[in-house]
TrEMBL record:
Gene3D superfamilies recorded: Ribonuclease Z/Hydroxyacylglutathione hydrolase-like (3.60.15.10)
Record's protein name: MBL fold metallo-hydrolase
Metallo-beta-lactamase domain ranges (all copies): 39-216
InterPro entries: Metallo-B-lactamas, RibonucZ/Hydroxyglut_hydro, UPF0173_UPF0282_UlaG_hydrolase
């Protein structure tokens, strides 16, 4: 069984960066997955007065959520404890069908999405994207098979500014079709779970966002993190968090 807890190596101060006009991104940093100290795919976005969480795990000192987006049901992305702490009566949860099965207690607040579907809200739209593995963990078994319909998300504001959270995915054909991305959050951990450093750099250099934030990697791999930065086109700003 996978055990998730707060890492003793976590930065005690939540890290917050501005990624656009009236848009801030916050991470609470490193979690411990079994024995590995791991920078997760968990973020808070504040867009004007709206609070959005993506894959909240190990979130501390929380503001209640207007929206919670979950990419898939693996425990480093899905924490019912964190979700309950963030909910109020008005919170909307956007997730795949697989995640929704674990949220029966709050099913009236759930919007199920499949890849390519788009939801329209007052201040922005949310598009679900494909997120799956082409590589196998063992024989034909994949950690994130396409049949599960796991997702990433593109959040697009009324002015066209867009933020892409890739979820757990390899460098797949559907990602090559993305365009007009301003901020990209991409996994670099590899190990048959996600795209690796080189693959992540390749897709970023293809879609050319203004900002990229690497995620989903063991924090001991600082050499890989630094190498990712060297591989990125100089027109894209790399923000490294821990």
């Amino acid at each position: 069984m996978v055990k998730i807890k707060i890492s003793e190596k976590r930065n005690p101060i939540p890290q917050q960066v501005s990624i656009g006009e009236n848009i801030t991104l916050t991470t609470w940093g490193t979690i411990k997955v079994n024995k590995s100290h791991f920078f997760p795919s968990s973020f808070q976005l504040k867009i004007d007065d709206k609070v959005i969480y993506i894959d909240p795990v190990g979130v501390e000192n929380t503001e209640k959520a207007d929206y919670i987006l979950i990419t898939h049901a693996h425990p480093d992305h899905f924490s019912f404890k964190d979700i309950k702490n963030l909910l109020n009566a008005e919170t909307r949860i956007v997730c795949s069908k697989g995640v929704s099965k674990k949220l029966s207690d709050v099913k009236n607040q759930i919007q199920i999405v499949k890849p390519k579907e788009q939801l329209q809200f007052e201040k922005f739209s949310i598009q679900a994207t494909f997120a799956y593995n082409t590589k196998s963990v063992f024989l034909w078994i994949k950690a994130h098979p396409k049949s599960k319909e796991n997702v990433g998300y593109i959040i697009t504001l009324k002015n066209g500014f867009s933020i892409y959270h890739a979820g757990d995915t390899d460098y797949i054909n559907e990602i090559k079709e993305l365009s007009d991305i301003d901020v990209a959050l991409v996994p670099i951990g590899g190990d048959n779970l996600t795209m690796n450093t080189e693959e992540a750099a390749e897709i970023i250099n293809k879609i050319k966002p203004e900002i990229v934030i690497p995620m989903h990697y063991e924090i001991k791999n600082h050499e890989e993190l630094n190498r990712f930065e060297t591989l990125i086109n100089k027109k894209t700003r790399v923000i490294k968090l821990d």
